[in-house]
Amino acid sequence: MDAASGWTTGAGHSGPPPAIAHGGPVVVGVDSAPESRAALTWAIEEATRRKRPLHLLHARARQDSSGPVAPGAQDPDPVRTVVETALVRARTVAPDLEVTTQVSDESPATALVAASESASCVVVGSRGRGALTGAVLGTTSAEVAVRASCPVVVVRRLGVVETERPSVVVGTDGSGLSTEAIGYAFAQASLRRLPLTVVHACPSRSSGGYVAPWLSDDPAARVAEEQAATAEEVTGWSEQYPDVRVRRHVLRADPVKALVDHSRGAELLVVGSRGIGGVSGRLVGSVSQGVLSRAHCPVVVVRTGTG
User: Fold this and answer.
1) Which one of 78, 88, 168, 270 is at 20 to 30 Å from 192 when CA atoms are compared?
2) What is the average pLDDT value for the chain, to the nearest integer?
3) According to the UniProt record, where is the region Disordered (predicted)?
4) Closest by Cα among 33, 17, 1, 16 to 196
C-alpha cells in the first residue's frame, strides 16, 4: 500500500484542554459482567486524570433472574452487590476521587443516554449485557453511541500499550465532520502526555471502497490530495495544542483495517460517528462499528456536536 506520513510538534501550553474542558462527571455503566470491570478501571483512571467526579450507573431493567432461593439461604440483593462492589473498587483504587452512584429502572441505554446530558463522557463495557457480539455492535452500545450528548467510550479491552509506540490514535476521513473527533484526540493526547497519530485511509474504487466522484482514483494523486487535506485538518488543533507531537499517516487501505492496525499498542482510539460512513437510523456508521468490534484498545466515539 502507498503511504505518506510526517511529524509535527511544538512548545508546551498551560490551562485545561479546550476540547474536553467542560464539566460533568465521568459516567460508567456497571453490571455483573466481567467486561464491566475493564470499563470501570478505565473510567476511574479517566476521572482521576481529568479531576472529574465518577458516577456509577447500574440499570436493572435487564437484570438476569437468579431463580428461587433455597430455604434457609440468604437472599442477596444483586443490585446492591453490583453497585457496592463497584463503589468499593473505585474508593480502593482512587480514595480521593468523588464517587456517586445511581440505580435506574430504565433500560441501560435509556439510563446512560439520560446521564450523558450532564456528563463529560459515558463509558461502557463492550461485551456486557447488550454489548458487542462477534463483529456486530450490540443494541445498548449502538444506541448510546448514537444518542448520547457527550463522547462515548467503548472498552472492548484495556489496551496492551507498547512502550515503543504508545499514542492516541484518531481516524479522519476528510469530510469536515471529523473535526471534533480530532480535537478530542488532541486533548486526550495532551492530558496523557502522548503523541497523536492521525490516520487517514483512502479506499479505492478498484477495491470496492467509496470514492467521491470528484476525487481522483490515481494512487499517487489521491495520497497527495488526502495528505494535504489531513494537514489542513490538523493545523488548527496543533496550534491549540503545541505540546502534542503529531504524526500524520495517509495511506491507501480499508479504513477499518487501517484504524484497527494502528490501535495495536495504542492507549486510545478516537473515531467520529458522522464521517463519510455516516450514521444510518440507530446504527453507528460502518467504519465506527467495524472499529468498535475489532480494536485492540478502548475506542471513543465522538458524534458531531458532542466533542
Assistant:
1) 88
2) 76
3) 1-23
4) 17
282-297: pLDDT as tens digits:
334 567 777 887 888 9
Q: Give the CATH H-level superfamily of domain 3-17+159-302.
A: HUPs (3.40.50.620)
| pLDDT band (50, 70, 90) for residue 166 | confident
CA distances from 167 to 86, 153, 161 (A): 29, 17, 9
Extended beta strands in the chain, E state: 3-8, 26-29, 54-59, 99-104, 121-125, 152-155, 168-171, 196-201, 246-251, 268-272, 299-302
End-to-end CA distance of the chain: 32
Q: How confident is the model at residue 75 (pLDDT cuts 50, 70, 90)?
A: very low
| DSSP-assigned letters across all residues of 265-304 | T-SEEEEESSSTT--BTTBPPHHHHHHHHH-SS-EEEE-T
Count other Cβ atoms within 10 Å, centred on residue 98: 13
CATH topology of domain 19-64+77-155: Rossmann fold (3.40.50)
